[in-house]
Structures are given as structure tokens and as C-alpha cells.
Amino acid sequence: MKTVLALLIATAMVFASQTDTAPNTKKTAVTKKKTTKAVAAAKPATPVAQPLVIPKDAVPNADGSYAYTDKTGKKWIYNKTPFGVSRMQDMGVAGSSATEPKGQFVKAVESGDSVKFERQSPFGTTKWEKKKTDLTDEERAILQQQHPLPQQPE
Q1: What is the DSSP secondary structure assignment for residue 14, as one 8-state letter?
Q2: What gap in Å lies between CA 109 and CA 114, rounded to an integer?
Q3: Phi, psi at residue 101, to the nearest 5°?
Q4: Cβ burial, residue 143 (10 Å; 0-12/13-18/19+)
Q5: DSSP per-residue string spanning 19-65
Q6: What is the pLDDT of residues 91-141, one digit of tens each?
Q7: Residue 5's Cα: distance from chain center in Å?
Q8: Cα separations (Å) of 14 from 11, 17, 20, 112?
Q9: What is the pLDDT of residues 19-30, one digit of tens each?
Q10: What are phi and psi of 122, to 5 degrees?
Q11: CA–CA gap between residue 67 and residue 58 (Å, rounded)
């Protein structure tokens, strides 16, 4: 046991003498300071992203968005969101649904005094049924478009 303890103390002293380089640490600390200063001077400052703002000459729209045309002639639409201002390029007409009738994708089937409607959506088929007396103007127009009343000869 005494020999093991003596051996551990001897190895500890050997390692302590090998790692004891106090004069060298001062030199490395000085060179580290010089290299960090050189690296800091060489790195350009990273630009900080500026938050997007609505331009002052943007025109407000009825839906709460803003229309803006930049210097190059691109048209942009700005919206206020809970996360800040968003911007997207204005592509003109807001899709093909503006030129197509609303009832084009709705199928209406009469069954007695009620009408069954079916519409395809991205989430599957939407079905509903209403009495003919409770139809909205849009539903009534869809029904008349798909099932026109026959003309009575006079």
C-alpha cells in the first residue's frame, strides 16, 4: 500500500513538472490576444436585418392590405400580420375564380321540396341539403342555372 502511494506521488510530481510552463503561457496569451485582434479586424460586421415596413406612399385597399409600386415598376402587396409586415408580389387578378361563376363547382340535385348540394373542396366533398323555401340567392341561382324551368308554350 505504501509503495502504491509513493508511486502515485512520484508520477504526480513528474506530470506537474512537465505541465508547469508558466513562462510559455505568457507568450501564448500574448499571441492569442494578437490573433484575436487580427481576426476581429478581418471579419466584417454582420448586417442586422431591418424589419419590413409599409412604404409611406402605399395605397390602402378595402381589405386592409396596401398596394405599392416600387421604382423598378414591380407591384407589391403589403399586409400587417401578428408577426410584422409581410410583402408579396402582385400577380394581377387574384386567381381564376374571379372570372368563373361561383356555382360552377357546385352540383345541385332536386328531391321533392328540398335541394341537395355537393361541392368539391381540397378537403373532400362538402354536402348540404336545404328546403327550397330556405335557399339563399346564390343557391337559388345555382339551382336555376343547372335545372332551368321549362318554357310553357302560350
Answers
A1: H
A2: 9
A3: -65, 150
A4: buried
A5: H--HHHHHHHHHHHHHHHHHHHHHSPPPPPPPPP---TTPEEPTTS-
A6: 876 554 455 556 678 899 998 899 999 998 888 899 999 998 998 999 888
A7: 67
A8: 5, 5, 10, 104
A9: 555 555 555 555
A10: -60, -20
A11: 6
Report DSSP letters for 71-132, one per residue. TTS-EEEEEEETTEEEEEE--SSS-GGGTS-GGGGEEEEEETTEEEEEEEETTEEEEEEEEG
Q: Is 112 left (phi over 0), alpha (psi -120 to 50) or beta?
A: left
Can you give the pLDDT at residue 11?
77
Instruction: Please report which helix (H) or strand (E) contains residue 11, including its range.
Output: helix 2-19
End-to-end CA distance of the chain: 127
Domain regions of the chain by residue span: 49-91, 103-146
d(CA 142, CA 145): 5
Residues 135 and 145 sit within 8 Å (Cβ to Cβ): no
Residue 146 in grid coordinates? 343547372
DSSP-assigned beta bridge partners for residue 80: 85
Phi then psi for 64, rounded to 5 degrees?
95, -5
